[in-house]
Amino acid sequence: MGDVPVALKICDITKFYAETSGGVKTYVHRKVDYLTGVLGWEHVLIVPGPEDELRDAGARRTYAVKGPMIPP
After folding, report:
1. 31 exposed, middle or buried (CB, 10 Å; 0-12, 13-18, 19+)?
2. pLDDT of residue 6
């Protein structure tokens, strides 16, 4: 293939993700920044959420999927 860049799409799925969370969210966001910004790949993130939702930002998409609340 020579010098032709390969466009990839990466998908991460996590059940530990919240708007106010720390470690998992921080790790995933830094990974997405590298994959989309440095390598130019597409990234899809699937996370739990209060409602089904799609956040589309070009090469990065986040799907929130509504699920039952798990008691602490």
Report:
1. middle
2. 66
